[in-house]
């Protein structure tokens, strides 16, 4: 019987276990008495699906200071980089970040007894008859064991399952690019998506010196945000957790979205940005390109507006626990997709590359084709303006499915289905914040962290917030275990 079983060994699991280690150290214990198991179907523990070995030019979209895996120690990664690889660069490759995560996970084992299991979890069964609310886990190998608490850190699939146009020969699963990107030499290529992943495709074609022409397309044709030359998250003045907390206390009830937006508006206004055109930019392709060029110019000369977003995210994310569930749902319905688009941004030199390619015509921006048909191994796209173009390759670089319902890991859905008839909503499985405990899990200790609980939190794909929320979950789980085992000395 384990105390905690963590499903998945990616960035979220690593951050969570770092916090367990930290809590053990703070309680004065040299070695934790906890029995912990971590299960992942892939053996590169720590890297998860995103930070596995890939091309070295695929860099993190977030600067080093926001990527420390240790809660309350924002210089942990910077110090590790200086010591291990003698670099002080602001942006590191995803490979290097994966190595850092793997090392962090190894260091956890110095004070925590962790059993790593390389297998796939096929079933999680909350044992309902048991008075102690244990949970049984089954693996592909047929092995089965029990735990007092389960942490879903399973992320969500990066593959795009549905096929918008019903055609077969398209690249749907992109990462790692090293093994999934087809050879695009002297080809016409249509890439669905105009954001971070499509920029990965463009920069990879550039580095591999493919002589190809790429059309990137999306519904609005909006291009990503750009990170500034000076990459500093701008400390907000109005969008502060303390300010929101004051509002919350004054109102005597949960904050509304309107309250949150009011402070966001003020913040943007203080930087001479009109919130409406910022959040809902004009739709025309030419407009989108000129907005992108303006972002690039401001990023070249100083802070970009993205730095402001970067500064606001942790404050708003923390405020989320004060927001009423109905407001949270409203947010998911109306704003989630916009916010996701806005808080992703590309580093300056990738933005410059994209701008150059838009200039010389090797990359073209377009709205989604109204139809796409496959004929004799080619793809014929018809665009809303009536124009037609023939492509050799079609690549989906849109991330996972748009519907939030599917962001909830299927394992979580299947587990909750065993406990209640209506376990999750169209906004994904809900978790209690700040503990991360899954709603509707009865008396069982079922928690979801990171992308596994994406459906219930708008800022989950920001690693800084993953670290913070995983820490809160770690504290909540320890408290729960202490209570349920009557072991007052556990991490007290
Ligand atoms: C291309 C790309 C670039 C990104 N860049 C950044 C960035 O620069 N900054 C940033 O903050 N965020 C970035 N993100 C967001 C990123 O997803 C998160 O930062 C973080 O990596 C999520 O980690 P995770 O552990 O929650 O999920 P994952 O990395 O998906 O890990 C989940 C793990 O669970 C395992 N698993 C799942 N199901 C099972 C099962 N049934 N049995 C066994 N094992 C299972 C998987 O094998 C996997 O290893 C990026 C995302 C992408 C796709």
From TrEMBL:
Pfam families: NAD_binding_9. Residues 5-156 form the FAD-dependent urate hydroxylase HpyO/Asp monooxygenase CreE-like FAD/NAD(P)-binding domain. This is FAD-dependent urate hydroxylase HpyO/Asp monooxygenase CreE-like FAD/NAD(P)-binding domain-containing protein.
């Amino acid at each position: 019987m384990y105390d905690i079983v963590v499903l998945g060994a990616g960035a979220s699991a690593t951050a969570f276990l770092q916090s367990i280690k930290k809590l053990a150290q703070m309680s004065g214990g040299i070695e934790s008495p906890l029995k912990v198991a971590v299960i992942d179907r892939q053996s590169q523990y720590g890297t998860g699906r995103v930070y596995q070995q890939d091309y070295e030019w695929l860099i993190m979209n977030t600067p080093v200071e926001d990527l420390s895996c240790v809660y309350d120690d924002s210089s942990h990664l910077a110090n590790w980089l200086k010591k291990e690889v003698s670099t002080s660069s602001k942006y590191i490759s995803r490979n290097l970040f994966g190595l850092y995560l793997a090392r962090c996970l190894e260091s956890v084992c110095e004070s925590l007894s962790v059993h790593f299991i390389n297998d796939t979890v096929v079933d999680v069964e909350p044992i309902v008859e048991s008075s102690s609310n244990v949970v049984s886990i089954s693996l592909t190998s047929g092995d089965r064991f029990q735990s007092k608490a389960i942490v879903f850190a399973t992320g969500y699939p990066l593959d795009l399952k549905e096929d918008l146009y019903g055609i077969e020969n398209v690249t749907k699963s992109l990462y790692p690019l090293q093994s999934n990107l087809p050879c695009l030499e002297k080809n016409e290529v249509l890439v669905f998506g105009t954001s971070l992943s499509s920029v990965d495709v463009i920069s990879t074609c550039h580095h591999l010196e493919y002589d190809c022409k790429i059309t990137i397309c999306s519904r609005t044709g909006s291009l990503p945000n750009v990170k500034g030359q000076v990459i500093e998250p701008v400390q907000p003045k109005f969008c502060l957790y303390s300010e929101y907390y004051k509002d919350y206390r004054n109102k005597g009830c949960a904050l509304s979205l309107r309250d949150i937006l009011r402070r966001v508006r003020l913040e943007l206004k203080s930087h001479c940005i009109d919130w409406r055109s910022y959040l809902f930019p004009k739709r025309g392709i030419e407009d989108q390109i000129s907005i992108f060029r303006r972002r690039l110019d401001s990023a070249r000369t100083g802070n970009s507006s993205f730095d402001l977003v970067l500064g606001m995210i942790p404050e708003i994310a923390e405020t989320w626990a004060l927001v009423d569930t109905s407001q949270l749902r409203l947010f998911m319905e109306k704003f989630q997709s916009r916010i996701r688009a806005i808080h992703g941004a590309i580093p300056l030199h990738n933005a410059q590359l994209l701008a150059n390619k838009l200039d010389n015509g090797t990359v073209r921006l377009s709205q989604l084709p109204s139809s796409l048909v496959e004929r004799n191994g080619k793809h014929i796209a018809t665009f809303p303006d009536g124009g037609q173009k023939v492509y050799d390759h079609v690549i989906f670089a849109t991330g996972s499915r748009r519907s939030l319902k599917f962001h909830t890991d299927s394992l979580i859905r299947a587990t909750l289905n065993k406990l209640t008839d209506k376990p999750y909503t169209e906004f994904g499985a809900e978790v209690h914040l700040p503990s991360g405990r899954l709603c509707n899990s009865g008396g069982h200790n079922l928690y979801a962290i990171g992308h596994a609980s994406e459906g219930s939190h708008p800022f989950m794909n920001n690693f800084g917030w993953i670290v913070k929320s995983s820490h809160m979950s770690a504290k909540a789980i320890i408290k729960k275990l202490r209570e349920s085992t009557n072991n007052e000395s556990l991490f007290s």
